[in-house]
Design a protein that fits this description.
7-stranded mixed beta sheet, 2 domains
């Protein structure tokens, strides 16, 4: 083995392992409770680093900012980040269930911030009209249809979203509906989820982009 090869191996051995998945379980004053690669949650203090290359930079409200092997990431409680790429080359993101077993996904719609409840029973992404207006979505001239809700059938506008981004996954031309009444929380429905591969392991759900 050449000296150059030995030097390369030494450099690789000295490099921190690349974390596959980072998720935020909770935040406290100056600290964050995180799970890395699906391991049991551990507490990090601001400035503390792990062997996997994760360093906690700051905590602000219900979110924390990390340096993940040189990449700066800000994650809310329950949100996950994957630094790797799935075997099929698709981008992926990791979500964490809340105490009631619900999965929440923080992302953007047409560039506007949106926090979704993951709902595999919803055929399409569904947005309350207030959230649609907040991000500047023009829906009043869109086709109308009836949508079944917990309170009965509600009138909805059928729209096409230019881009929906959840974690590292960005999908374009996504079908959605906007409801004037009967919906308080944006729903991440199957018009997005069907274009991913979903894998659930305990309190973690991994989404991998398929197309």
């Amino acid at each position: 083995m050449t000296g150059a090869s030995l030097a390369l191996l030494a450099a690789l051995a000295a490099s921190p392992a690349q974390p596959a998945d980072l998720r935020v379980v909770g935040v406290f004053t100056g600290k964050a409770l995180v799970s890395i690669d699906g391991a049991a949650p551990r507490t990090l203090s601001i400035g503390q680093s792990t062997a996997e290359g994760v360093r906690l930079l700051s905590v602000d409200g219900q979110q924390a900012t990390f340096d993940v092997s040189g990449t700066r990431r800000t994650l809310a409680v329950g949100q996950g980040y994957s630094s790797g790429i799935a075997e099929n080359g698709g981008a992926r993101t990791v979500l964490t269930a809340d105490t009631q077993g619900h999965f929440w996904a923080t992302g953007t719609v047409n560039g506007g911030a949106m926090r979704f409840l993951v709902d595999t029973g919803a055929t399409l992404i569904a947005l309350p009209a207030a959230d649609a207006r907040r991000i500047g979505l023009n829906f009043l001239n869109a086709p109308r249809a009836g949508v079944k809700t917990a309170n009965g059938v509600a009138a909805a506008y059928v729209v096409k979203l230019d881009a929906v981004k959840i974690g590292d996954i960005t999908l374009t031309n996504v079908d959605a509906v906007v409801l004037e009444t009967g919906l308080e929380t944006p729903l991440l429905g199957m018009s997005f989820l069907d274009r991913t591969a979903m894998r659930r392991e305990g309190a973690m759900m991994t989404l991998v982009r398929r197309f």
